[in-house]
Design a protein that fits this description.
single chain; 241 residues; 2 domains; six-stranded mixed sheet; four-stranded antiparallel sheet; 8 helices; 10 strands; globular
Length: 241
C-alpha cells in the first residue's frame, strides 16, 4: 500500500525526521506512537504532501499497477489517488453547512458521495443526516470531528490518515470513535494510519505500531509486541491511560 524509506525532514536547520522507514499493509490499522514533538504530525504531513522531505522516498503501491512516487504529486492529487486525511485542526468550513462541506470534499474524490463498499455517507454516519443544513460553527467539537471524518470518507480513500483523533475528546466520544475506526478497518477493509498517544485506544483499534522518538523510528511491529520496557522508555512522560 505505502512504503517510506530513509525519509529525512528539516524545519529550517532543525533535523526533525531521521531516516524513517515505514510500511503500511492493505487492510491493516497502523499507529504512529510517540510523545508530543517526536515527529508524528510531521511524518503524516510528509505522507499527505503538506511537508516536503529532504531525502528518501515515499511510494504508493497498488496491485493493478506499478509503484507511484508520491513525491511528484501535490496534496490534491494524493487525495484523488486515495489518501484521505483528517488533521488535528479538522479544516471544516465553519460558515458552510454540513451538506455544503461534504459536497466540497467530494470534489477531491472519484465518485459522488459514496464511502467504502458503496455506502452513502449518511448511512455510514447517520448522526450527520439531521444536521445536514446546520453550519459547521454551530456543531459541537465532537460533531465537527465527525464532519471532518465524513469529508475524508466521501473521497473514497484507500488509506485514511487520522492525526491525534482523540486529542481533547471525552471518554464517551473516544469509545464511539474507536468503534467506528474498528468498523472501517475490520469490517469494511479500509487501511488506516493514525497518530496517537492513548495506549488504551491504540491497543483497541490498531494492528501495528511505529514508535517515534526525536524523529527516529525506534521500534515497530505488532501492537501485541509493545512491552513495558518500550513504554517506560518512550511513552511514560505524557501517557494517558
Amino acid at each position: 500500500m505505502l512504503s517510506l524509506r530513509a525519509v529525512n525532514h528539516y524545519y529550517g536547520s532543525q533535523h526533525t525526521l531521521w531516516n524513517v522507514d515505514l510500511d503500511l499493509e492493505p487492510g491493516r490499522c497502523t499507529c504512529l506512537m510517540g510523545l508530543p514533538g517526536m515527529g508524528k504530525t510531521t511524518l503524516i504531513n510528509c505522507i499527505a504532501g503538506y511537508q516536503d522531505i529532504e531525502s528518501g522516498s515515499i511510494f504508493w503501491h497498488e496491485a493493478s499497477g506499478p509503484p507511484c512516487d508520491l513525491l511528484t504529486l501535490s496534496p490534491p492529487l494524493r487525495a484523488a489517488m486515495g489518501i484521505g486525511y483528517v488533521p488535528q485542526d479538522k479544516r471544516i468550513f465553519s460558515q458552510m453547512t454540513v451538506e455544503e462541506n461534504l459536497r466540497i470534499a467530494q470534489r477531491a474524490g472519484s465518485d459522488d458521495g459514496f464511502t467504502p463498499q458503496g455506502r452513502d455517507i449518511y448511512e455510514l454516519m447517520p448522526e450527520l443526516y439531521p444536521l445536514r443544513q446546520v453550519k459547521g460553527s454551530a456543531l459541537s467539537e465532537d460533531t465537527q470531528y465527525q464532519l471532518a471524518l465524513a469529508g475524508a470518507l466521501v473521497t473514497q480513500p484507500k488509506l485514511l490518515i487520522l492525526d491525534e483523533p482523540t486529542r481533547g475528546m471525552g471518554q464517551g466520544f473516544m469509545h464511539k470513535l474507536g468503534d467506528f475506526i474498528v468498523r472501517l478497518n475490520r469490517e469494511l477493509g479500509l487501511t488506516v494510519l493514525l497518530a496517537e498517544q492513548h495506549l488504551s485506544f491504540i491497543s483497541r483499534v490498531a494492528d501495528r505500531f511505529c514508535l517515534l522518538h526525536r524523529g527516529r523510528n525506534v521500534a515497530q511491529g505488532n501492537v501485541q509486541q509493545l512491552d513495558t520496557r518500550l513504554l517506560e522508555q518512550f511513552m511514560t512522560q505524557n501517557e494517558v491511560l
